[in-house]
Design a protein that fits this description.
single chain; 158 residues; alpha/beta; Rossmann fold; five-stranded parallel β-sheet; globular; Sig_transdc_resp-reg_receiver; phosphoprotein
Length: 158
């Protein structure tokens, strides 16, 4: 793993939601690992958890496996440096389902919603540069993209 890269782990048994989350996170600057079930995610975490910055998991998993809620609690206790987002369409979290610092996203989600929640779960030093820049632009801060103009140019405009 590249020590200068930011890594995310996406866990969702639905390939369309998994690919959507992967694309959003890759666009935000993450290198993304993906798993279709929690057991695969646990294997990735056991091998690479020290370098992963973000866990983005669905709640519902195939029968006989742990839920995304359980995975979030396990990850929070074993890898406290990892920011965690949990997504679901129908299974809303109840009191105690999630650790305090975990954020919940309702499905279907879009890029803007995910970026907003990333800002909530990741300290600035754990945010890829592309994500930080997107967040600055979303807040309406000028990007200084205009060409430089001399004082005489400015006087001539008035």
């Amino acid at each position: 793993m590249d020590p200068f890269a930011f890594y995310a782990l996406v866990v969702d048994n639905n390939p369309l939601f998994r690919m959507n989350a992967q694309a959003i996170l890759a666009k935000a600057g993450f290198r993304v690992f993906a798993a279709a079930k929690c057991e695969d995610a646990l294997e990735i975490l056991s091998k690479r958890g020290h370098g992963i910055t973000l866990l983005f998991t669905d709640v519902e998993m195939p029968s006989g496996t742990m839920t995304g809620f359980s995975l979030a609690r396990y990850c929070a206790s074993g890898w406290p440096h990892i920011g965690i987002l949990v997504a679901a369409g129908a299974n809303l979290p109840k009191q105690g389902d999630l650790p305090a610092h975990v954020r919940f996203i309702q499905k279907p989600f879009n890029e803007a919603v995910v970026k907003h929640h990333l800002k909530q779960v990741l300290p600035e030093q754990q945010q890829p540069c592309r994500l930080r820049m997107a967040l600055v632009q979303d807040q309406g801060v000028p990007d200084f993209g205009e060409p430089w103009r001399s004082p005489s140019d400015l006087r001539n405009e008035g």
